[in-house]
Amino acid sequence: MSLDPPPVNVERVVNELEQLAAISDCPEPPPAVTRVVFTETDLRARAFLRGLYEQAGLTVRVDPIGNTFARWEGSEPVLPAVGSGSHTDAIPHSGIYDGTVGVLGALEAIRVLKQAGCRPRRSIEVVMFTSEEPTRFGMGCTGSRLMSGAITPDALADMRDSDGDTYDTVRQQAGFSGSLADVALPGDYYHAFVELHIEQGPELEAASLDIGVVTAIAAPAAFEFAIIGEGGHAGAVLMPSRRDALNAAAEMTLAIERLAKESRSPDLVATVGRLDVHPGAVNSIPSRVAFSLDIRDIDGQNRDAVAAEIQEALAAIADRRGVQLESRELNADPPAQAADSLIAAAESAVAVLGLKHQRMISRAYHDSLFMARIAPTGMIFIPCRGGVSHRPDEFSTPEQISAGVQTLALTLAQLAE
Amino acid sequence: MSLDPPPVNVERVVNELEQLAAISDCPEPPPAVTRVVFTETDLRARAFLRGLYEQAGLTVRVDPIGNTFARWEGSEPVLPAVGSGSHTDAIPHSGIYDGTVGVLGALEAIRVLKQAGCRPRRSIEVVMFTSEEPTRFGMGCTGSRLMSGAITPDALADMRDSDGDTYDTVRQQAGFSGSLADVALPGDYYHAFVELHIEQGPELEAASLDIGVVTAIAAPAAFEFAIIGEGGHAGAVLMPSRRDALNAAAEMTLAIERLAKESRSPDLVATVGRLDVHPGAVNSIPSRVAFSLDIRDIDGQNRDAVAAEIQEALAAIADRRGVQLESRELNADPPAQAADSLIAAAESAVAVLGLKHQRMISRAYHDSLFMARIAPTGMIFIPCRGGVSHRPDEFSTPEQISAGVQTLALTLAQLAE
């Protein structure tokens, strides 16, 4: 293909991002967005995307858990394809751009490559992964996990949402049928996979750069803790006799924060994002507290070492306060390295386009983490305002999005040549 | 009347307590009980009580917010009456005896006095106060507050529940009509008021005593705090850049615990019973946290001094962590002293019955705190196992309940002579 900058129609992309954002269960209007997997709203978003894929002349395939592949047939369709995509589910009260830029951006990249007369040998597919967010089932990236064999069909089928319904039941009620065993892709299915995404951090904006070429993806682990203390009347039980589950949880939360800050790795982050108090009455001493821990690092060993320190610290606090502590590891995934071939392709695209870039790591959790197990994988980041994500004020400018889509288009063109 | 021990039918009282406990919204069966004011369940409990009052030949009056008076007419009905009662609402997942022993116990006391041929000059009334628990509107004792003029009709009418419905709307939907201004009782309505209640603390059981004669009721205060920090993606925002609202709340919760423990008064207790995290997602940094503070002491000045220290400490934590702190005082009531006449009447009853007793203070919050503003008031405590209350395992033996009802009956008989 020509090495001219692809004529990205960014107004079209932004318009499609806004139409998608309007398909939301958030009580507040966009930019606040809530779109949880397998809800009626998720299904409407999928129907909207299918319409765009078909308008673009792509062939759509949906697997048994709703991972969606929109294929632009190459001149040699038997060759392993090039994949690009992300997710469209959104945690409660989040924003417009997380995931969606990678799906609609990949679609736009194909549209401009077609328009530019590009005729790649390899097919190029837009992938929309099911349930990148852990909102409903407590574990994220279930679509790419099953696709890459990182989780077994049985383990996935048995996961339950807060209503106690299994993943298998819910996906079938949402209209996705077929054997979960058919979701895994063969190792030679993709020649390469690349995901365009907002950075979800402040580095690119701070350095006034257009593009981040990802070299590694941080490894997340998730835990669930339950504290059983002793309840009672807030007026009657004197302070020395208390075994308050919330005070124990508070001390544990601060221990987690301290150990994360003291970690040898500046990239290690630990977050208590959920904390539920029982019985939750103004005048009742909390008897039970459940809370979550999300801990990540680009160094999996360091992450696991800090997670172990945290477990020790929490057990010591529980002992000292005379409360019972139960802990459960939900997942602990290894970090992923980007393929040199993908880094090279993205950097040559950036060079052609005259954009400013840096190599960087992804601290956030992406489907690419799992795609890297079955294909040479890379990620292209664009800046987002203030590094803000998972919030309604998450924002990237049309220019930033356009630069990302141009970079993705040229990267895909090279990989598919 | 004769000074023989009144022939309390404790099987009947326990049976009525158990029937009342079965009227519950708790998903678990009794002894777990949930009965929130103005719910359909609260109304069923009120209907059950009315049936018992009528069987006992008492005249029932219900005021515009549902405070219920069941009157045994004295030989000189024009004289100020003697009142005795408590509440039947129950916080989520609590027990059988809190409040209910004071209502059904007062009913049994009247039944046995009638049976014993007692013919008092003054009328004796069983009072069931509306909403002693703060569960629904955030403020407790709304029935006795309005009855005693401790809150204005307008202030009460405008209080809202978590659905945003006002007290005035909800009480009318529950079928209670009439002007809120008519709830306040004149200062000469009651000659005396006495409340029978489980101790909700461990002292009587530890000292193997039958009865506690209350000399003072601790003063509760309630506050609501909101912390506004900065949310974001749990993977992307590095630890040093965070303004995590939950970590700030955790530090504040521990500061409250520490200041309460360090207080000069051993009777001071402070509890964070509610804590809500927004957005509450595993992989999202908490951006907002709301929590409650309940703080009590028999020394109102000390309580207010510690509450002020807590406010200062919380403000300092908010500053240091760069989060915004909003605080609201829901109520701060003065402590109450029991009337000497009531203490004397209860102690002479205990002497006649040959029971073992001690004078003590009530650390828990009762409608008597407000009744003391409009009538000479006292309280009679019975032991409860392990001092446990507001929990399903709250328990007093039939013998303990019987001793309490006998003491109450003789106390009422003297006061009504």
Automatic annotation (TrEMBL), chains A, B:
Classification via Gene3D superfamilies: 3.30.70.360, Zn peptidases
Q: How does it assemble?
A: Homodimer.
| InterPro entries, A to Z | Amidase_Cbmase, Bact_exopeptidase_dim_dom, Peptidase_M20, Peptidase_M20_dimer
Which NCBIfam families does this UniProt record tie to the protein?
Answer: hydantase (TIGR01879)
The answer to whether keyword Hydrolase applies is yes
Q: Name one GO molecular function term.
A: hydrolase activity, acting on carbon-nitrogen (but not peptide) bonds, in linear amidines
- Looking at the record, the residues that make up the Peptidase M20 dimerisation domain are 224-318
Residue positions annotated to bind Zn(2+) 1 are 87, 98, 197
Q: Which UniProt keywords apply?
A: Hydrolase, Manganese, Metal-binding, Zinc
Which residues hold Zn(2+) 2? 98, 133, 390
Record flagged with keyword Transmembrane: no
Pfam families associated with the record: M20_dimer, Peptidase_M20
* The enzyme's E.C. designation: 3.-.-.-
**Under which name does UniProt file this protein?**
Putative hydrolase
**What family, per the record?**
Belongs to the peptidase M20 family.
